[in-house]
């Protein structure tokens, strides 16, 4: 057996994974209800003292907010175990231009992450225009963003998702607003969140984990699995969210494993 084949075989069981990155919606939660096996899986990770982070492209909320949301739904995930596209964006901007300035369209999750990295929010000749998810889009602020990008501000978006979920149906998300600004300026943003493997690598650094012994668990082939694959991780597609087994076969890449839900991984850790 080749070294690569041996590695893939060795990590084919949950007990061989040394750290975990877990998508939130579709893996741990579905429509604000915990998915069967999620609580057990998290409990067994803690029992084993296994490092993990819960990842989300949603940039609206802080880690504390999301921890409270998960707790309300019966899942115990401390805020320091949550990694959002807002946090990944703040880390990226700090690595590029420490102590910079940004004009932001987004909510407290994004503005807090930028402030904590030493960024100043400004409408006057900012280094960056940063777009994140919000529920209060303002024509005036979008117009300001268009003019700033046109004047040379660097264009960043937390994630490319065109829509987000809600109990009433899909909502326009970051990618949709970024497309509006792109259409008006002819400039494309740099997206930090999934499927950009940059978000996965920043999460690995946060965990001090190695890609070869880390698994990415997600419910979407086009974001979670491809990001994990491009970052060199073991990838697990769960069929409890967006992608199903039939649609997964249509992609030019495939996950390391496909399981019905996180309950199957929890059973392996029993």
Structure explained in plain terms:
The structure is a single chain. It is built from 11 helices and 15 strands. The model is unreliable at 1-10 (pLDDT under 50). Helix 4 (85-96) runs parallel beside helix 5 (108-116) and helix 6 crosses helix 7. It has helices at 3-10, 38-47, 63-72, 85-96, 108-116, 139-150, 174-185, 197-207, 221-230, 245-248, 262-268; strands spanning 19-23, 29-30, 33-34, 52-56, 82-84, 101-105, 120-121, 128-131, 154-157, 163-164, 171-172, 190-191, 214-218, 234-238, 257-259. It is of the alpha/beta class and 270 residues long. Strand 10 (163-164) and strand 11 (171-172) form a beta hairpin. The chain is 39% helix and 19% strand.
How would the blueprint of this fold be written?
Elements: H1 3-10, E1 19-23, E2 29-30, E3 33-34, H2 38-47, E4 52-56, H3 63-72, E5 82-84, H4 85-96, E6 101-105, H5 108-116, E7 120-121, E8 128-131, H6 139-150, E9 154-157, E10 163-164, E11 171-172, H7 174-185, E12 190-191, H8 197-207, E13 214-218, H9 221-230, E14 234-238, H10 245-248, E15 257-259, H11 262-268
Parallel strand pairs: 1-4, 1-13, 4-5, 6-7, 6-8, 8-9, 9-12, 13-14, 14-15
Antiparallel strand pairs: 2-3, 10-11
State the helical fraction.
25-40%
**Shape, principal axes of CA atoms:** globular
Overall strand count:
15
Q: How are strands sequenced across the largest beta sheet? A: 5-4-1-13-14-15
Which CATH architecture of the largest domain is right?
A: 3-Layer(aba) Sandwich
Secondary structure class reads alpha/beta
Specify the biggest β-sheet.
6 strands, parallel
CATH homology-level superfamily of the largest domain: HAD superfamily/HAD-like
Order of helices and strands: HEEEHEHEHEHEEHEEEHEHEHEHEH
Instruction: Tally the structural domains.
Output: 2
Kindly identify the CATH topology of the largest domain.
Rossmann fold
Alpha plus pi helix count: 11
Strand percentage: 15-25%
Distance between the termini: 29 Å
CATH level-1 class of the largest domain: Alpha Beta
pLDDT averaged residue by residue: 92
């Amino acid at each position: 057996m080749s070294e690569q084949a041996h590695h893939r075989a060795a990590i084919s069981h949950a007990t061989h994974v040394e750290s975990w990155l877990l998508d939130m919606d579709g893996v741990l939660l579905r429509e604000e209800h915990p998915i069967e096996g999620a609580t057990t899986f998290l409990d067994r990770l803690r029992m084993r003292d296994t490092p993990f982070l819960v990842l989300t492209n949603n940039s609206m909320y802080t880690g504390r907010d999301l921890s409270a949301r998960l707790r309300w739904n019966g899942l115990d995930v401390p805020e320091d175990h949550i990694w959002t596209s807002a946090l990944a964006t703040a880390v990226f901007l700090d690595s590029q231009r420490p102590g910079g300035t940004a004009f932001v369209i987004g909510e407290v999750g994004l503005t807090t992450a930028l402030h904590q990295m030493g960024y100043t929010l400004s409408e006057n000749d900012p280094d960056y225009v940063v777009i994140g998810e919000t529920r209060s889009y303002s024509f005036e602020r979008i117009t300001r963003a268009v003019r700033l990008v046109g004047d040379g501000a660097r264009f960043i978006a937390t994630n490319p998702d065109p829509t987000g979920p809600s109990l009433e149906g899909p909502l326009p998300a970051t990618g949709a607003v970024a497309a509006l600004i792109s259409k008006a300026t002819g400039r494309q943003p740099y997206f930090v969140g999934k499927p950009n493997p940059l978000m996965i690598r920043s999460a690995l650094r946060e965990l001090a984990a190695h890609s070869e012994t880390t698994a990415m668990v997600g419910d979407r082939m086009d974001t979670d699995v491809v990001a994990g694959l491009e970052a060199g991780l073991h990838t697990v597609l769960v069929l409890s969210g967006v992608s199903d087994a039939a649609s997964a076969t249509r992609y030019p890449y495939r996950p390391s494993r496909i399981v019905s839900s996180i309950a199957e991984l929890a059973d392996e850790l029993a």
